[in-house]
């Protein structure tokens, strides 16, 4: 039996640790409870679905219904000689799910260790790190259409994955609630150690027998050295996406800024690290009262305790404007601003 609560604080449910209230709040633990909750919501009433709360910036109270996704469960649903198909419910903690796969010898997710959030949020924004994206291991997902309550399965093609986005952030934004995701993982791993500092960290750790657990441990060590723990300092991880520009524009920037890094992409595109742009614009480590830019990672905006979401939003806009002024590059938030 679901419970409709009123005037509920959302501070425990967002990793920024920002105070905001929901006019109405319903937690659901089964799909039937979700369907029951949807029947209780007026068609014109604002609706927000919360998973781990690691990808939102709350700037004000929410005058509508917040649905808290607490669907749990992990099942091996199929396998062949080379692969396993693993179904995880959308409310599962992402990192704990990755660790579960590693413990069972299912390879493919180890580079995505310690990313905050839930399984359901992972395909929504096609999360990625250290050379791996969700689309590389994704098989399908199930979701409920909010307007009709109908169940629907989506293939990888139907999800329209792009860089940190999917159809659920574009044409279908706010129209579906993801309930479960199926991943196709490998029985025999293909190790991906070339991206970032993974190989150097493995060497530093003295790893000679490479395994998916060793790669996961290295990724965790790197992330912990760079990114603050939301339990200690409120944050949502990387606040901005890495921008993509035309190669000809990149070459022009290199003439003016010789040290600007860039990673070649198909179709004469180049991805620029937003962290580098923000640091060069002078924002790294800056504090403004209760908020600021983290001292170790300029992509991370932080709440030191009693910050306000509207002030973090203002800071983000100022950073965006200064990067555009200095480099002529538009950076966009990865975080959903509410």
From TrEMBL:
One of its GO terms (cellular component) is cytosol. InterPro entries: FAD-bd_PCMH, FAD-bd_PCMH-like_sf, FAD-bd_PCMH_sub1, FAD-bd_PCMH_sub2, MurB, MurB_C, MurB_C_sf, Oxid_FAD_bind_N. Signal peptide: none annotated. It catalyses: UDP-N-acetyl-alpha-D-muramate + NADP(+) = UDP-N-acetyl-3-O-(1-carboxyvinyl)-alpha-D-glucosamine + NADPH + H(+). Keywords: Cell cycle, Cell division, Cell shape, Cell wall biogenesis/degradation, Cytoplasm, FAD, Flavoprotein, NADP, Oxidoreductase, Peptidoglycan synthesis. Pfam families: FAD_binding_4 (PF01565), MurB_C (PF02873). NCBIfam families: murB, PRK00046.1, PRK13903.1. Pathway: Cell wall biogenesis; peptidoglycan biosynthesis. Its EC number is 1.3.1.98. It is an enzyme of class 1 (oxidoreductase). Residues 18-188 form the FAD-binding PCMH-type domain. Belongs to the MurB family. The active site is at residues 164, 238, 334. Cell wall formation. It is found in: Cytoplasm. This is UDP-N-acetylenolpyruvoylglucosamine reductase. One of its GO terms (molecular function) is FAD binding. PROSITE patterns: FAD_PCMH. Transmembrane segments: none annotated. It comes from the Bacteria. Its main location: cytoplasm. GO terms for biological process: cell division; cell wall organization; peptidoglycan biosynthetic process; regulation of cell shape.
């Amino acid at each position: 039996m679901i419970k409709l609560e009123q005037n509920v604080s959302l501070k425990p449910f967002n990793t920024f640790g920002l105070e905001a209230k929901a006019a109405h709040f319903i937690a659901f633990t089964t799909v039937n409870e979700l369907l029951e909750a949807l029947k209780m919501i007026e068609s014109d009433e604002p609706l927000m679905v919360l998973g781990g709360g690691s990808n939102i910036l709350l700037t004000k109270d929410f005058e509508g219904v917040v649905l808290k996704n607490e669907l749990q469960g992990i099942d091996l649903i199929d396998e062949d000689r080379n692969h396993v198909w693993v179904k995880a419910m959308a409310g599962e903690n992402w990192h704990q799910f990755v660790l579960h796969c590693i413990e069972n010898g299912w390879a493919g997710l180890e580079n995505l260790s310690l990313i905050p959030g839930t399984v359901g949020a992972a395909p929504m924004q096609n999360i990625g790190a250290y050379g791996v994206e969700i689309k590389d291991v994704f098989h399908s997902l199930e979701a409920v259409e909010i307007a009709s309550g109908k169940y629907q399965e989506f293939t990888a093609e139907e999800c329209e994955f792009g860089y940190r986005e999917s159809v659920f952030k574009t044409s279908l934004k706010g129209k579906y609630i993801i309930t479960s995701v199926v991943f196709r993982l490998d029985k025999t791993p293909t190790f991906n150690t070339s991206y970032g500092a993974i190989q150097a960290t493995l060497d530093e750790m003295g790893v000679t027998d490479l395994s998916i657990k060793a790669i996961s441990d290295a990724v965790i060590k790197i992330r912990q050295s760079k990114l603050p723990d939301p339990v200690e300092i409120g944050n949502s991880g990387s606040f901005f996406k890495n921008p993509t520009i035309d190669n000809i524009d990149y070459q022009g920037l290199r003439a003016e800024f010789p040290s600007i890094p860039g990673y070649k992409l198909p179709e004469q595109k180049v991805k620029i690290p937003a962290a580098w742009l923000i640091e060069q614009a002078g924002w790294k480590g800056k504090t403004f009262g209760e908020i600021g830019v983290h001292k170790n990672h300029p992509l991370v905006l932080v709440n030191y305790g009693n910050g306000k979401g509207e002030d973090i939003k203002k800071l983000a806009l100022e950073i965006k404007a200064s990067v555009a002024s200095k480099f002529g590059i538009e950076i966009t938030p990865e975080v959903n601003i509410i």
